[in-house]
Amino acid sequence: MSELRSGPAWASLAWALSGVLALASLACAQAESETLLRDYREAKDAPARISCTSEISKNRTDAGVAALTVILEQDPHEGVRLAAARGLLVAKSHAASLVLIKAATRWDPWLADLVVGGLGRGVLPPTRTWLLEKGLSHDREDIRVVSIRILAKTALGDSLKQLRSLSEDKSTRVRAAVAGALGGDMVKSYSVLKRLAGDTSIRVRVAALHSIGPAPKAIGVLKKAARADKAWQVRIEAIPALAIRAPAKFRTTFLKLAKDNKLEWRGRRAAIQALGRVREAAAVDDLIGLLRVLEGRLRAEARRSLQLMTGERDLVVAEDWKNWWEARREGFAVLELPGLDAAPLPAPPAKQLPKTRARFY
After folding, report:
1. Which of the four, 27, 105, 247, 286, has the lowest number of CB atoms within 10 Å?
2. Is it the case that residue 300 has pLDDT exceeding 90?
3. Does the pLDDT value for residue 11 go beyond 60?
4. How many Å apart are CA 210 and CA 308, to the nearest integer?
5. For residue 337, what pLDDT is reported?
6. In terms of Cα–Cα distance, which of 46, 42, 128, 31 is closest to 81?
7. Distance between alpha carbon 122 and the CA centroid of its chain, in Å?
8. CA 323 – CA 334 distance, rounded (Å)
């Protein structure tokens, strides 16, 4: 009998029994999940389905995961799907994680962000292994992208080598995701990010500049992108980065870009905002000069920058600003530098507004 237990026959029998037990467990889980789904399927509206989904989320067994998977894959309402995703995140199982990774590839931005953030903050060891061994090399582009995004939320460590190799992936989305992920290791990955900042894809260049911006050696890359890149999307990423790093050094560059009629208006607006971060009297002169030549929203942006620098809110036209500035220029101290996302100041009374045609560009 002892020979039987240690021989090939016993091993085959044990393997067969484990398979039967696994199938039986799966069948039980599916049956229980159908029971859990009964109230959900009888619910008449989305709020009721969300309530049922929240109740199912309390069951963290295989049956609960199976029921939440059905809801996540089939329900047409975004709120219900988000409730199911939260339940799967709470389940903290590898099977639930794989379901979520697949779900994050759908065109459902809120769901994707929830999954990436949730798994990134508490990725399980088996799931991390799957991401490294299968996710990053998956034949589906969207799986590779989601895998990169999740790993980017964690300590990169053992994933750095694979992420850098994916910087040459044929997929634009994958290269852009890599550029974003390597921002967590911008010093050691500087050479890769610098190459991606010159990528043929606008999306990749923007992501690379966003990651490389704070790097000590990035000034040259940012300057080149701000001055010469053909895509305004890239310029509005590079210009604010320069304004934060060395505003006074690039004052003349910002002024030139603000006056460039060939540059898309959003690039010119970024240059005007950058001038507002140059806390020098010369920048006030530049902005007053821009008030004379700009129109519409660009003129409004120049005025806003002047307001943030001087604290003067009542002046509108260039001539009034010039007279006010000439009387106060000597020894004037500009206000403390605000953030680029500072709230707009209140508009002046209507009687002070000059008569002009409305322009939005």
Report:
1. 27
2. yes
3. no
4. 25
5. 61
6. 46
7. 19
8. 17
**CB burial class (10 A; 0-12, 13-18, 19+) of residue 152?**
buried
In the chain, the amino acid numbered 361 is: Y
If you search the block for the tokens 């890239």, which residue do you land on? 234
Q: Give me 30's structure tokens.
A: 């599916």
The answer to whether the beta carbons of residues 241 and 213 sit under 8 Å apart is yes
Over residues 83-90, the mean pLDDT reads: 94
Location of structure tokens 């994050």? 104
| Predicted confidence (pLDDT) per residue in 182-239, tens digit | 998 888 899 999 999 999 999 999 999 999 988 888 999 999 999 999 999 999 999 9
CA 161 to chain centre: 22
Which residues, 6 or more positions from 45, have their beta carbon under 8 angstroms from its beta carbon? none
For residue 136, the one-letter residue type is L
List, in order, residues 6 or more apart from 304 with CB less than 8 Å away.
Answer: 276, 344, 345
**HEC letters along the chain:** CHHHHHCHHHHHHHHHHHHHHHHHHHHHHHHHHHHHHHHHHHCCCHHHHHHHHHHHHCCCCHHHHHHHHHHHHHCCCHHHHHHHHHHHHHHCCHHHHHHHHHHCCCCCHHHHHHHHHHHHHCCCHHHHHHHHHHHCCCCCHHHHHHHHHHHHCCCCHHHHHHHHHHHHCCCHHHHHHHHHHHHHHCCCCHHHHHHHCCCCCHHHHHHHHHHHCCCCCCHHHHHHHHHHCCCHHHHHHHHHHHHHHCCHHHHHHHHHHHHCCCCCHHHHHHHHHHHCCCCCHHHHHHHHHHHHHCCHHHHHHHHHHHHHHHCCCCCCCHHHHHHHHHHHCCCCCCCCCCCCCCCCCCCCCHHHCCCCCCCCC
Sign for the pseudo-dihedral over CA of 159, 162, 164, 166: negative
Q: Which residue has the higher pLDDT, 147 or 4?
A: 147
The overall average pLDDT reported for the chain is 85
Task: Look at residue 359 and tell me whether its pLDDT is greater than 70.
Answer: no
- What is the rounded distance in angstroms from the CA atom of residue 320 to the CA atom of residue 339? 26
Which amino acid, one-letter code, is at 147? S
